[in-house]
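Structure tokens please, single chain.
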Amino acid sequence: MHVTSVAGIFSVPGFDLGMVWIDFMHVVDLGMAQLVVGNVFWELYRATGSNQDSLADLLRLVHWASKQHGYETPAINKITVNMIRKEGKKPNFKAKAAESRKLVHCVYSILQLFPRTTNHEIIRYSCVELLVLIYKEMYNWTSESASHIATLGRKHCILYARLSIDMHESGQNPDFLFWRCTPKMHLFCHLIEQGVNPKTYWAYCDESEIGHATRMAERVHVRTLNFELMDRYRILELLR
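Here you go.
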């Protein structure tokens, strides 16, 4: 049987899987966070009429919560149904990584405005709260944070899965579309067990450099782009 490599990097001489680190930005900010925000927004949207007024109310709540957290600008400036959930797909809010992180905190504040009378509402609130605490732990890292973040992460995954299972057993989630467990949850479990602060090796700095290189590339001629870009980048690094 012919087997192809998952990616070309695996065939690079000297490459070892131990060089790979799980990136918080892609696994959480562009993964778990978007699933949580998408599911909460979908449930609030459905509970308040499933119409344009519902979306407008959600956006107003996001703007209110953004102010509560001291954000200079709202976490997002628009909400559409397709941003929350495409037809027939799982809820998965479409936003940039930094927006998703802000939205987790906004959703936590928004849920505090709603009564928590059912088992689902109680578990949902705790699930979001645990994700907020993971962010807090990451930004206030101490010698005990490695064990704290691992415990918080495991509890978050258990509650997330509980929401999916409970809805399935009640007949509201026959295809496990809502609060759906995805492969990124598996990666998330490994990430929180690595024993170091995810903030120290996430890909935000790399993404920033790529953006900077793109902006420089736009100012050079396409025929000499590779040489000019490297020259400009080398000069820039010398000036830093």
